[in-house]
Design a protein that fits this description.
The complex is a heterodimer of chains A (113) and B (115). Chain A is 0% helix and 50% strand. Chain A has 113 residues and is mostly beta strands. In chain A, strand 7 and strand 8 form a beta hairpin. By secondary structure, chain B is an all-beta fold. Chain B contains no helices and 10 strands. In chain B, the strands form 2 sheets. In chain B, strands 2, 4, 5, 8, 9 and 10 form a 6-stranded mixed β-sheet that branches. A 4-stranded antiparallel β-sheet of chain B has the order 1-3-7-6, with no helix packed on it. In chain B, a hairpin with a 5-residue loop joins strand 4 and strand 5. The relative contact order of chain B is 0.33. The mean pLDDT of chain B is 91. Classes of the chains: A mainly beta (113), B mainly beta (115).
Amino acid sequence: GNSVTQMEGPVTLSEEAFLTINCTYTATGYPSLFWYVQYPGEGLQLLLKATKADDKGSNKGFEATYRKETTSFHLEKGSVQVSDSAVYFCALSDRSGGFKTIFGAGTRLFVKA
Amino acid sequence: GAGVSQSPSNKVTEKGKDVELRCDPISGHTALYWYRQRLGQGLEFLIYFQGNSAPDKSGLPSDRFSAERTGESVSTLTIQRTQQEDSAVYLCASSASTGPVGELFFGEGSRLTVL
């Protein structure tokens, strides 16, 4: 079945550091890929998405590129801020799974001032 | 309302009792999901409703768990004979579209504590 694997946290960075959170997936079809973010005390919300190979999703300075050859969708940001501290979830949805969305385990990010 | 609404926001119950959790999706959203999030863990898929199709129940962990949805509106998740391992935040999400690009909109969750 479909699955999503993301790097374990927590990840602790200083402000303005470069961020990478790795995500790889297994899917029998051609999934759409997502990053969701859960800020402290808030509900999950979509951060960015990509629907086909080589697409780049971007939002709020975050980027992720859909790499079919490596089945990856790594999240990156060039310069993190304290306000980026949150839990980040990689997710996928595809036809073989009936389009239900499944999530990775989440990666907690702490950014220090 | 403007978003997905869940109730109760907090529920404390005794082991062995039944609980019902409610989700009001965004009006017009055809897809509705339930997930479970244990403390410090990721999102565990439970059940997925899509329009009038049969629900995907593949994530329900045992026959103590069931869910219903009335048309394209309210859904209730019922846990019978609760156990301590059922303690978690239960998240509901809805989506406007089928197919591969549907963004999920999440509620704030119902935190269940089983004593």
